[in-house]
Specification:
The protein is α+β, with helices and mostly antiparallel strands and 311 residues long. The chain has 7 helices and 20 strands. The chain binds flavin-adenine dinucleotide.
């Protein structure tokens, strides 16, 4: 049931966005818990699913001109959305940005909304190597570039050639790899860019070799990260040459609960939602971990997940 405030707010967004001829799907008062791997988060005012790049340019240009806050969403697998949700417009590229074009010389051009795992499997079928490490990473290619996602010694930056993006005024940009500064779980793409397309350079390889690598990475995950409750992957970045999970475990924190959230009993760097966790529960555990690990080890852990939305 919507309250009166929501109705007014919806009507305002609806009427205004309708005038910009938006072609995609538009949802109002969207529970972000239904869209994040953590299954946590208050409502977003609006979520739009642009049909293509011109639809995206149209809607963000319009939203920005009205002063609406814009947030780009991938698959919500590295996100903690606060309990009061997201004010403004959430851009979701999962419906209109799904194209994959296979080029010459083992290149592939991928729309930002494509899921990494789907792409890994398509590369396998073509005997293309380079992306196998991403088999267990449940996000989109757009999110993976923004986060410089990685595993088992490889990162997305290793295979990127070029990134295309649109800024929030609707202007298009193209970034060669040499102009993008990647570091651990970070890409220094200018602020307010929406990544729309990614150019990857892979390597021809024996199909069985690619298959075996994927299997090896899957098996490694099964033994170290067998976590069946909703989560957002690693909460903290690993400090240089150290494992955040190990530091948390050695500080005696595994299994500790607060409200509906728990520091995973399987992997110290994961927090799980036991069923009814709030963002505040998770944030309380995060601050407890930072505090206790600092006291026990003298190391201040830095979060890897992005915390967004209203307190
Ligand atoms: C079970 C599990 C295992 C995981 N394992 C790994 C792992 O091994 N390695 C690893 O690196 N990560 C891992 N993750 C974290 C996560 O999957 C990755 O960071 C992933 O790349 C995030 O992609 P997403 O599409 O879900 O982005 P989201 O979580 O939706 O967004 C993350 C950030 O990227 C931004 N963003 C998303 N799309 C775009 C876009 N098109 N343009 C601009 N900005 C954008 C968002 O604004 C946000 O700031 C794991 C997560 C889970 C739940």
């Amino acid at each position: 049931m919507q309250d009166a405030r929501c109705k007014i707010k919806n009507k305002t967004y609806n009427l205004q966005l309708a005038t910009c001829n938006f072609k995609g799907r538009m949802l109002f008062d969207v529970p972000m818990k239904d869209y994040t791997s953590f299954k946590i988060g208050g409502n977003a005012d609006v979520m739009v699913f642009p049909k293509d790049e011109s639809d995206l340019i149209n809607v963000i240009g319009f939203a920005a001109s009205k002063g609406f806050h814009i947030f780009v969403f991938g698959r919500g697998t590295n996100l903690l959305v606060r309990d009061n949700g997201i004010k403004g417009v959430v851009i979701n590229l999962s419906e209109g940005f799904k194209n994959i074009s296979w080029g010459e010389n083992d290149t592939v051009v991928v729309d930002a909304g494509v899921m990494l795992i789907e792409l890994v499997n398509l590369c396998k079928d073509r005997g293309l190597s380079g992306l196998e490490f991403a088999i267990g990473i449940p996000g989109t290619i757009g999110g993976a570039v923004f986060m410089n996602a990685g595993a088992y010694g490889s990162e997305i930056k290793d295979i990127i050639e070029k990134v295309e993006a649109v800024d929030i005024s609707g202007k298009k940009h193209s970034f060669d790899k040499s102009t993008l500064n990647f570091s651990y779980r970070k890409c220094d793409i200018p602020e307010n860019m929406i990544i729309t397309k990614v150019y990857l350079k892979l390597k021809k390889a024996d199909m069985d070799e690619v298959k075996n690598k994927i299997k090896e990475f899957k098996d490694r995950r099964k033994t170290t990260q067998a976590i069946n409750l909703p989560n957002a992957g690693s909460i903290f970045k690993n400090p240089t040459e150290l494992s955040a999970g190990k530091l948390i475990e050695e500080s005696g924190l595994k299994g500790i609960k607060f409200g509906g959230a728990q520091i995973s009993e399987v992997h110290g760097n994961y927090i799980v939602n036991l069923g009814n966790a709030t963002a505040m529960d998770v944030l309380t555990l995060i601050s407890m971990i930072r505090d206790k690990v600092f006291k026990a080890k003298g190391i201040l852990l830095e979060t890897e997940i992005k915390v967004v939305g209203e307190d």
